[in-house]
Design a protein that fits this description.
The chain contains two helices and no strands. It is mainly alpha-helical. It comes from Niveispirillum lacus.
Length: 71
Amino acid sequence: MPLSDKHPTVKRRRSQLLNHFLAFFVFAVIVVPVNFFTTPDHVWFFWPLVGWMGPLALHTAYAMGLFDRRD
């Protein structure tokens, strides 16, 4: 049975996921200008962001309860 939106576990998971998205956004806002100011002829900012998207997708799935055990 799915947990209610008011359940403490759901609230905690959502809060942690929001923090993860916020960290990703802040990192992106920093790394893109660093790339264009240091090496404008070589675009590399995309690769760290792509590397972070995998764990972010897994964290999103976890926060949605896709890895919860069904008894």
